[in-house]
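To fix ideas, we now present one chain and its tokenised fold:
***
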Amino acid sequence: MISNFAYAKIKEQPIEKAEVPIEINSDNGIICERDKNMCTAYGNVEVIHKAYKLKCDKLVTYFRSTAHSKNELYKIEASGHAIMSSPDKIIEAELLKAHIKKDATRKYNLDEIEAFNNVIIVTQKEIAKAKYGHYQPEKDVVILKEDVQITNEEGQMHGAYAEVDLDKGISKMLRKSPIQEQDKKVKTAPNRVKVLILPKTQRTIR
């Protein structure tokens, strides 16, 4: 579980700019199945790529053949207390799915992250909780669905759907998704959006 201590620590982390490959370490080894184009790592798994770090109990990596490579990494699934961190945010969930792509220079970049069940996202300004989260690094936007709660030093918001622009520092809470008709999996909140504004003397993030 993310604590106030973890929230404080992300402010102290230096920004890493070095271009480095994807590094995977585990305590219990890695099993690769060539016919399935996948590898599975078990036991205290740690993944490091650029400024991103991922820790989990089990990691599955998926590969595919492309015009440039026979084994290009394109997806990572982390389960069991999965925590992904960067200098300015922490994403925690029971299951994290990270989609990878290569840029014009053939270097790996994080395309998007999906978080499932007991999702917690911590930034320098707020803590968000939900059952589902979708993070887009290029836009620096997080979409949260089902039992959403966003807490910052000003107060707390509750709803069924939220869009958080991390770059602009804007959080939008809605009673349901704008595309509710197409997204049948999103449950409509039984009540209206709820906002709690704290007095200045009580403004602490929990």
